[in-house]
Design a protein that fits this description.
Elements (H helix, E strand, L loop, with lengths): L1 H35 L5 H26 L11
Helix pairs in contact: 1-2
């Protein structure tokens, strides 16, 4: 396989495939979080879902840093 795509292509493939899988997993996580988020009003929820769907990774990043409500109760240690 290395002879077909070359060593540089193989290294690029080894780097890009896991990165693409991580981006996709993050995108799905943010989409599910926006759908299930009880801290958002219905209008905010629809807006964030549309932003995540149409802006893809950028929308997911924006939601992660701006859209997710902050935790109001501290976590308890178990």
């Amino acid at each position: 396989m290395i002879a077909i795509i070359g060593l540089s292509g193989f290294v690029l493939l080894l780097f890009l495939v896991p990165l693409a899988l991580l981006f996709t997993a993050f995108w799905i996580w943010m989409l599910v979080d926006a759908i299930q988020n009880k801290g958002l009003t219905d209008g905010e929820k629809v807006g964030w879902i549309l932003a995540i769907v149409f802006l893809h990774f950028l929308g997911a990043l924006l939601y992660f840093f701006i859209g997710r409500p902050k935790r109001t109760t501290p976590l308890t240690a178990t």
